[in-house]
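Below is a filled-in request sheet from our internal design queue. Each sheet records the structural input a requester submitted and the sequence that came back. We keep these sheets so that new team members can see what a complete request looks like end to end.

REQUESTER: design group, bay 2
PRIORITY: normal
MODE: inverse folding
CHAIN LENGTH: 211
BACKBONE (tokenized):
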């Protein structure tokens, strides 16, 4: 799936109020709105739906998002059975997302859909993000070492995250990848200097630089 070629650790949906918690209009989704966001996220990332399912989504949308400028955190479904159906549909969408999480990561639903690195050092694939989180110390190379490589609209190549570029512009994708690999090598040195040989030893199981 090309939609998950680039990813970021953290929330992938707006945060919502948990069931039973006070609503926070303008700041957090209602539980129904959050469940609708989960369904929508999977749909954006490529989940195929039947015509009937697409119609149901439009009906939910009409009730939860009557206008593009509506205030979030106030809309709920009037019919409890309909709200239950939406919750079950969100669970199915989350299961679909979980199956497609990048190697070394997992999707979880807290008060948002979040992508988290798996913190199992014995796993076949250990994400660089997991190593950085477990190290819990200042590692200057960490930011670039965890970067992705992508092409700008101007045709240059950069290494960065979902928001910022940390290296570039580069003439080729290989040059941008090389910058990330150099940062990963430096990260290994910094981990060893910090007394975390256990984390440095996972370097041969880090995934390829995403591009």
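RETURNED SEQUENCE:
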């Amino acid at each position: 799936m090309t939609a998950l070629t680039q990813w970021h650790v953290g929330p992938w949906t707006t945060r919502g109020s948990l069931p039973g918690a006070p609503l926070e209009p303008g700041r957090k989704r209602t539980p129904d709105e959050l469940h609708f966001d989960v369904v929508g996220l999977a749909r954006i990332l490529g989940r195929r739906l039947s015509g009937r399912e697409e119609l149901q989504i439009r009906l939910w949308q009409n009730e939860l998002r009557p206008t593009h400028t509506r205030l979030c955190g106030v809309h709920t479904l009037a019919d409890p059975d309909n709200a239950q159906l939406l919750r079950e549909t969100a669970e199915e969408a989350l299961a679909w997302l979980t199956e497609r999480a990048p190697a070394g990561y997992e999707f979880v639903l807290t008060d948002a859909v979040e992508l988290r690195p798996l913190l199992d050092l014995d796993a076949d694939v250990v994400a660089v993000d997991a190593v950085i989180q477990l190290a819990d110390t200042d590692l200057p190379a960490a930011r670039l070492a965890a970067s992705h490589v992508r092409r700008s609209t101007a045709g240059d190549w950069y290494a960065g995250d979902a928001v910022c570029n940390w290296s570039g512009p580069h003439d080729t994708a290989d040059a941008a990848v090389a910058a990330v690999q150099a940062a990963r090598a430096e990260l290994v040195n910094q981990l060893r200097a910090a007394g975390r040989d256990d984390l440095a030893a996972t370097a041969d199981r880090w995934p390829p630089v995403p591009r």
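SHEET NOTES:
- Residues 3 and 45 are 6 Å apart (CA to CA).
- The mean pLDDT is 92.
FILED BY: M.R.
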